[in-house]
Amino acid sequence: MLEIKKLYHYYGSAKALEEINLTLEEGALDGIIGPNGAGKSTLLRVITNLEEPDRGKIEFLGERIDDMKTHKIVKKGISHCPERRRLFPDMTVDDNLKMGAYLVKNRGKIKELKNFVFETFPRLKERRKQRAGTLSGGEQQMLAIARSIMSNPKLLLMDEPSLGLAPKVKEAIFEAIKKIKQEGTTTLLVEQDAVLAMAVSEMIHVLEEGKIEMRGTKEELEKEPRIKQVYLGI
């Protein structure tokens, strides 16, 4: 579904991404882990052309998108749930969800998507008339994910969904991520919490200093001494 080949991105003379190669199959849930500043969020931003790649190729469903405008990439079916949520704080939960569904023309589908997000995040249903800016941090993260789902994406990019959340809220968010995967949505997950990312991802890509240094399944990476020491604290 998504294929990235020899992708480079620079900030001035500094390499933010270096020769990234990544293939994501339809229906998969892949994780990207790595330290702060490794280029994880930058990679998602480059996929959606919020930041232009300097070299390389990105294909989505067999079509090149690396030179495509962001709004056209969204129309192709890629939804980006950004780091730090980026909600409309003065709008209600309901209105934020409506904004997420602005490209979906079928009212029946919108109703189906809303039912799914309220089933996945019951707390949002309870607070549907509440302004987004008054929600707790965990509820805001739930809303950010729900808004992304409302666009009915073929591919969902998730950037640090557990950032700054309490352990119990993190667990709830990751249960929701598993449920989204079960519904068939292809997902690429960037996550600082390696333990959580590895628990839900089928394939994990380890990004360090702009390069993918290692990749494998949870079982494979758990055997790597450096992964155990640096990411899992074993």
Order of helices and strands: EEEHEEHEHHHHEHEHEEHH
Q: How large, in whole angstroms, is the Cα Rg?
A: 17 Å
> What coarse outline follows from CA principal-axis ratios?
globular
| Main sheet overview | 6 strands, mixed
Mean pLDDT: 94
Structural class: alpha/beta
Beta-strand percentage range: 25-35%
The spatial strand order of the largest sheet comes to 6-7-8-3-9-10
Number of helices: 10
> What is the terminal-to-terminal distance?
35 Å
Helix content: 25-40%
Q: How many extended strands? A: 10
Low-confidence stretches: none
Reconstruct the topology from this structure.
Layout: E1 2-11, E2 14-24, E3 29-33, H1 40-47, E4 55-60, E5 63-64, H2 70-76, E6 78-81, H3 93-100, H4 107-120, H5 122-126, H6 137-149, E7 155-159, H7 167-182, E8 186-190, H8 194-200, E9 203-208, E10 211-216, H9 218-221, H10 225-230
Parallel strand pairs: 3-8, 3-9, 6-7, 7-8
Antiparallel strand pairs: 1-2, 1-4, 4-5, 9-10
Helix pairs in contact: 3-6
Task: Characterise the protein shown here.
- The protein has 234 residues and is an alpha/beta fold.
- Helix content is 38%, strand content 26%.
- The chain contains 10 helices and 10 strands.
- A hairpin with a 2-residue loop joins strand 1 (2-11) and strand 2 (14-24).
- The two termini are 35 Å apart.
- The mean pLDDT is 94.
What are the key terms here?
single chain, 234 residues, alpha/beta, six-stranded mixed β-sheet, four-stranded antiparallel β-sheet, 10 helices, 38% helix, globular
